[in-house]
Amino acid sequence: MDTDKIIQDLNRRFAVLLPEFYQRRIIFWYDEDKEFEDKLDEVVLENAKVIELTGNNVFCRNLYEARRTNEYVQS
Asked: What is the reported pTM?
C-alpha cells in the first residue's frame, strides 16, 4: 500500500459523519514492520491531526484533552 492511498483512505474515514452521540474519531495505526516510519511526515490530513506515539508521550493525553474537537490518527 502506498502513502497516497493511505492518506485517501484516512481522509475518507474522517469525512464520514459521526454516529449520534459520538464526538470524535481516533484511529490507532501500528506499523510493526516500520514500513511507513520515514513517510509519517508526509501524511497531512484534511480533518485530522497525526500524532506519533513514542515511549515518552505523556503530553498526548493533555493535548487530546485540550483539543477535544479535533480528530486524530495516532501511530
From this structure: 0.63
